[in-house]
Amino acid sequence: MIRLLLLFHRYLGIGVGLLMSVWCLSGLVMMYVSYPALGRDTRLAHLAPIDWRGCCRISAAVLGDADPVSSFRVEMLAGRPVLDLGSGPESAGLTDLTTGTEIDTISPAQAASVAAAYVPAAGSAGGVTWAAGAGSVSDPPGTAVAPPLLGMIDFDQWTLEGVSAQDRPLYHFDLRDGRGGQLYVSSSTGRAVQLTTRRERFWNWLGAIPHWLYFADLRHHALLWSQIVIYTSLIGCFLAATGLYIGVRQLLRRPAGRWSPYRGFNLWHHIAGLFFGVLALTWVLSGMFSMNPWGLMEGAGARAERARLRGAPISGAQLRATLQALAAAAPSGIVTIESAPLDGRLYLIASSADGTRRRLDASGAPAPLGAVQRHFIATTLQGGGAGMQLLTRADAYYFSDPGSRSELPVWRVMPQDGTGRRYYIDPLSGQLVSSVDRADEHYRWWFDALHRMDFTALMRGRPQWDALMWLLMTGVTTLCVTGTYLGYRRLTR
């Protein structure tokens, strides 16, 4: 029986061992270069301040006074303020607020004006200017020339993550910025949705792409891709588990006077397996759990809670009145206005290019989140006033790690109903930014903790996290590489 298990482990390791070696080496790369993403702060920094002159008109054909509006955003597009009513059933898409008419599609020239703001020579107002009503781009002195359009795509290697179906197809631009920058602009909203550099693209071919098996043609078929990742991980778990059993058994049956029956590469593989075999098993297992196989750790989400916090949607008439009040006040330095309704009342979050935000009411006056509204939030989430706490430090379920950032401070609401639910509330807008239930807790420990070694805040901090991960990954990589080499050597013999 043991001989059959040895043979099975050896030849299974030839294929899966190589993949596990790649997972280890690519994981080291991912510690320092993550999958490309256009962050909110970067996008805000490249938006032009909203020009309130001639704003804000919405024709009745676009939005009736009684029509419900659940969310909206106001930004500049090609020199004009535009209203985005989102992708819900009541959505009218984009509206030009200077004419009040709907924008059916984003033209190449409009997309080019967005991309021009990302060229280093672009001016602070967005790079290029539009000739009013002409539908063409002009380039006055001191503004950047729009970057060349590489084409229009549905997806490629760098737009598999963080780009919604509603944004596609995408305009693809070469920024010619000296860093190999490439920008993707949505053809439906005119928003920049992805930005990559030459460095990111190079290192991701050694990092996230092989680590996640994120090859575009495979990843585009989401179900097939997820099944391949899940079942290759299962095979890896079996390989690691059988290796642990064999390694311990051989240690217990070692010859007298020796603590291992092996020599050479076999000895190195045996030693690495004894010290790092359990870690190899937990890493492959936690990697599989990242896919939430068969819905084992599928959280309930918080759609119902968010709906209760928002309350009844506002009407088209209310939206018109709010936009007219903003146009009259003409707040300066604002690059985006987003709705943040609470308890059936309309509030706005106004953001500047430097990322600073402020909360306004429907008339455009400052409206910080008050005690009464916080009590409403706590009561709505069944936490009561006593269950609401302002966190200035991360807790076990809301934290930043080397690959992501969670904003602090944040209000935490913990219902006293025995469910273990946790809600995290933006202290500026009062909106629910994160929720955790029992399934999310399991995911946090079975994936985040086991895979990234972030059991505590101390372990997440740098440089100690780097040192720990290099030590552990060196051991596991040695285990996988030596095992793969031994299998191939035996095969060739």
Low-pLDDT runs: 122-142
Strand fraction equals 15-25%
- Rounded mean pLDDT is 89
Amount of helix: 25-40%
Terminal CA distance reads: 23 Å
Give Rg in angstroms: 27 Å
Instruction: Write down how many β-strands occur, each being a DSSP E stretch of 2 or more residues.
Output: 19
The major pleated sheet works out as: 7 strands, antiparallel
Number of helices: 14
Class of secondary structure makeup: alpha+beta
Report on the architecture of this protein:
- The protein has helices at about 1-30, 40-45, 110-115, 200-205, 210, 215-220, 220-250, 265-290, 305-310, 315-330, 370-380, 440-450, 455-460, 465-490, and strands spanning about 70, 75, 80-85, 95, 100-105, 130, 135-140, 150-155, 170-175, 180-185, 190-195, 315, 335-340, 345-350, 355-360, 390, 410-415, 420-425, 430-435.
- It is of the alpha+beta class and about 500 residues long.
- The strands form five sheets. Strands 5-4-3-2-13-14-15 form a seven-stranded antiparallel sheet.
- α1 packs across α14, α7 crosses α8 (about 265-290) and α8 (about 265-290) packs across α14 (about 465-490).
- The chain is built from 14 helices and 19 strands.
- It has a domain at about 1-35 and about 215-295 and about 450-490.
SSE layout and pairings?
Elements: H1 2-30, H2 40-45, E1 68-69, E2 73-77, E3 80-84, E4 94-96, E5 101-103, H3 108-116, E6 129-130, E7 137-138, E8 149-153, E9 170-174, E10 182-186, E11 192-196, H4 198-204, H5 208-212, H6 216-219, H7 222-252, H8 264-289, H9 303-310, E12 314-315, H10 316-329, E13 334-339, E14 347-352, E15 357-361, H11 371-380, E16 388-391, E17 410-413, E18 422-425, E19 432-436, H12 438-452, H13 457-460, H14 464-492
Antiparallel strand pairs: 1-12, 2-3, 2-13, 3-4, 4-5, 6-7, 8-9, 9-10, 10-11, 13-14, 14-15, 16-17, 17-18, 18-19
